[in-house]
């Protein structure tokens, strides 16, 4: 899959942008933003993220059989877990739509889809990975910087994540 990458300074929500305009964007469109004014997680819970300190991305997948949905979720989680592993972040635990380190949330994943007759018109996978943020309004959050005691380059993390997705996408999206 070739990714079409769109980068924005500020958006209301990267998922919402893709949902509203999915018919205009090709399969594999990745929207990245430095800040979201209305970022959210499951059940419309607010996603807290400071400007420019986290990885905030959404990816659009189109025209897939509905039975690929569990594989897409696994693929997404595996990509983030692989990225965290590259930085020796341990104590990782996956719960339904979140990734925790030492019982504190480091990443939230929001998957939204539109279906028609056992077919996925689109799947939008939104990812909020806490990278360099050090203060949170909720005590149950953590970032890579707080865990590893170092500052990370968001652009490099984004590129690594895309490479992981590209290497593993064939198994997920095209396997029988």
Structure description:
With 176 residues, the protein is α+β, with helices and mostly antiparallel strands. It has a single domain, classed as 2-Layer Sandwich (BirA Bifunctional Protein, domain 2), CATH 3.30.930. The chain has helices spanning 14-21, 69-86, 144-148, 154-174; strands at 4-11, 29-36, 54-65, 92-95, 98-101, 104-115, 119-130. The protein starts with a strand and ends with a helix. It has a seven-stranded mixed beta sheet with strand order 1-2-3-7-6-5-4, sandwiched between helices. α2 packs antiparallel against α4.
Labels describing this entry:
176 residues; alpha+beta; BirA Bifunctional Protein, domain 2; 7-stranded mixed beta sheet; 4 helices; 7 strands; 34% strand; globular
Q: Would you kindly provide a brief summary of this structure?
A:
With 176 residues, the chain is α+β, with helices and mostly antiparallel strands. It is 30% helix and 34% strand.
């Amino acid at each position: 899959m070739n990714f079409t990458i769109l980068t924005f300074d500020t958006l209301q929500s990267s998922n919402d942008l893709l949902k509203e305009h999915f018919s205009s964007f090709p399969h594999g469109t990745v929207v990245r933003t430095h800040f979201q004014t209305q970022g959210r997680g499951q059940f419309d819970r607010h996603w807290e993220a400071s400007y420019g300190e986290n990885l905030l991305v959404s990816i659009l997948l189109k025209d897939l059989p509905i039975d690929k949905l569990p594989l897409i979720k696994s693929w997404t989680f595996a990509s983030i877990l692989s990225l965290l592993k590259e930085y020796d972040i341990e104590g990782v635990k996956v719960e339904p739509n979140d990734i925790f380190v030492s019982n504190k949330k480091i990443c939230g994943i929001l998957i939204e889809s539109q279906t028609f007759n056992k077919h996925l018109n689109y799947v939008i996978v939104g990812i909020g990975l806490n990278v360099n943020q050090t203060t949170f309004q909720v005590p149950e959050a953590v970032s890579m910087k707080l865990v590893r005691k170092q500052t990370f380059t968001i652009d490099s993390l984004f590129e690594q994540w895309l490479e992981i997705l590209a290497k593993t996408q064939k198994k997920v999206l095209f396997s029988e």
